[in-house]
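Let us practice reading a record.
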Amino acid sequence: MSDLDSVGLSLIDAGLEILDDNIGACAMHLARALDDGLSEQDSEFFDDLLRLLRLIENRGHGLWFIDWFIKNGDNERYAPLYGAFVAFVRGDRFLRDLNPETRGPATHLYDLLSAHRQTGLG
């Protein structure tokens, strides 16, 4: 694991923290991963981010993380990811409220997040 880059390590740490319901520590590691550059096109760890977001919701912390995104201003900085996560937690109708530039990418990310619901895969 020492060969893993900082994004991968941050996501592992975030996952371990959320399993213990340490949401503040999880948020700190998630913020580090996002700040280090975690995009679908450029990161081999993007699927791990989606798994972490699913786990956060599954553990019942989705609403807390929605507020966390807003308090940090990350709802604007990572608007498509935030929009997809809100839709994942609150329902896909939220996507209709997004501006057109954000709606398309957010819908794509929402589809990736929610795909396991149709297939039964985590």
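A brief commentary: The first helix runs from residue 6 to 19.
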